[in-house]
């Protein structure tokens, strides 16, 4: 019975919040052969958010690991947040002529929500 009970517990490898739930108590859960079903739940971490910014070719020269970059979100007018450059794409998208740059943004107060639209302030006057 204990072995059966252990299959009823799902443990995430990080702290987060459930943002999507597709099953409820008493639901029968199965996996099809293709394993392309809907996830049981979607959990998102809120303490560390990752912001992927498409940086125009002309602005890629000033991007360095660890550099702090400011951004704003519509939910908090007048408030500026920061993220640090964590990863570079190292290649430009041939259609948009931009390079993806990933920022790590710490969110200790939980103000920011995953999926918020951000406006990023690059060096000079470029807004992304």
Protein model, in words:
With 128 residues, this protein is mainly β. It has a domain at 48-121: Elongation Factor Tu (Ef-tu), domain 3 (Beta Barrel), CATH 2.40.30.170. 4% of the residues lie in helices and 34% in strands. The chain has 1 helix and 7 strands. The strands form 2 sheets. Strands 3-6-5-4-7 form a 5-stranded antiparallel beta sheet, with no helix packed on it. The longest helix is centred in the N-terminal third of the chain and has 5 residues, at 2-6. The radius of gyration is 20 Å and the shape is elongated. The model has no long low-confidence stretch (mean pLDDT 87).
Rg computed from alpha carbons, rounded to a whole number of angstroms? 20 Å
CATH H-level superfamily of the domain at 48-121? Efflux pump adaptor protein, beta barrel domain
Assembly form of the protein: single chain
Give the ordered list of helices and strands: HEEEEEEE
The main sheet orders its strands as 3-6-5-4-7
Structural class: mainly beta
Distance, first to last CA: 55 Å
The count of β-strands is 7
- By CATH reckoning, the class of the domain at 48-121 would read Mainly Beta
Overall geometry comes to elongated
- From the 3D structure, determine the CATH topology of the domain at 48-121: Elongation Factor Tu (Ef-tu), domain 3
Give the integer mean of the pLDDT values: 87
* CATH architectural name of the domain at 48-121: Beta Barrel
């Amino acid at each position: 019975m204990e072995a059966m009970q252990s299959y009823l517990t799902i443990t995430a490898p990080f702290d987060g919040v459930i943002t999507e739930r597709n099953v409820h108590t008493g639901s029968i859960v199965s996996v099809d052969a293709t394993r392309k079903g809907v996830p049981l739940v979607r959990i998102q971490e809120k303490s560390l958010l990752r912001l992927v910014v498409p940086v125009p070719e002309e602005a890629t020269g000033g991007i360095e690991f660890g550099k702090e970059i400011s951004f704003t979100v519509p939910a908090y007018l007048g408030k500026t947040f920061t993220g640090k450059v964590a990863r570079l794409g190292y290649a430009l998208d041939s259609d948009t002529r931009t390079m993806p740059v990933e920022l790590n943004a710490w969110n200790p107060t939980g103000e920011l929500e995953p999926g918020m639209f951000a406006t990023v302030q690059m060096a000079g006057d470029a807004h992304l």
